[in-house]
Amino acid sequence: MQKKIPFLDLKEQYLSIKDEVNVAVSKVFEQTAFSSGQFVTEFENNFAKYIAVENVVGVNNGTSALHLCLLALGIKEGDEIIIPTNTFIATAWASCYVNAKPVFVDCDSQTWNIDVSAIEKIITSKTKAIIGVHLYGQPCDIDTLKKTCDKHKLFLIEDCAQSHGAKYNGKTVGGFGDISAFSFYPGKNLGAFGEAGAVVSNNKKFIDKIRILINQGSEKKYYHDLIGYNMRMDGLQGAVLNVKLNHILKWTKRRQEIAALYKSKIKNKKIKFQNHPENIESVFHLFVITVEKREDLMAYLNEKNIFPGIHYPVPIHLQKAFANLHHKKGDFPHAEYLSENCLSLPMFPELKNEDVEYVIEQLNNY
User: Fold this and answer.
1) Looking at the whole model, is its pTM more than 0.90?
2) Domain spanning 247-365: CATH 3.90.1150.10
């Protein structure tokens, strides 16, 4: 009987680095460096080198990272932030946390990233920033976003939660915008053993402010200059991420190999792929396809012991949490089509070629 092929298997990755992780976390225990501290600092420095940016600050999760980006930029009540509706909802939460208004825009019908051609017409005098999401591990159209931001004097924020190491015109994402947010949620390409995130920027002023904000608004203990938060990265996550960072290039290459197999060998005409422009290098956090009657394909694959995922079944503009914005079905048709027809195939570095070939065979037989 065919073994189960899950969408994601974190245990295999853990077993492959178990001994390294045990040594790393033991040092944290021995030095009781549990909150921030040297292991977080070491990771910040190493991650900065990896993505070629000047400043990194580790935080408690990716959602907080996005929130802190807006705080650092001075976004406030009444401001408007343009974001794609085809993304994880945390991208939109950030604007809500600072009482700004999220202004949604559709995704491109081919790349499934933010539709840069639709942005100009929704910019108003209240617009202060655009969040470009590098969705599924694929960079969005940064050049056009930067031109738009420069033209209208807007901040560009990169949401890199799914794109660790992805490249645009040969340069790693995270350093193009004024400020960027990363998530290290366990299922990410670079995942912690718990919650963790980071804010990165080449502007030290923003990072200095964030270091105060995440530490109870304090630069000096018991002296609080700003209304602050408790958003520090803990030492255990810093240590784990340092171990994993040593393997990220190998894991990324394997993801790209799996994606290449899917793209070259899936011949079923019912299945459509995300378009990958030549000037980008995706890290394939997800490998997403679209197909009519998705539920039928899912049921068929489950019968074959293949268990894909769905990202995301309800676009943000149709979520109940944003009912106050009065959007309706039909407002953003490309994102809505994806929500109803997309399917994420099994994708993780430890996936064996024989399992990939089996998934391909079953998709071609469907």
Assistant:
1) yes
2) yes
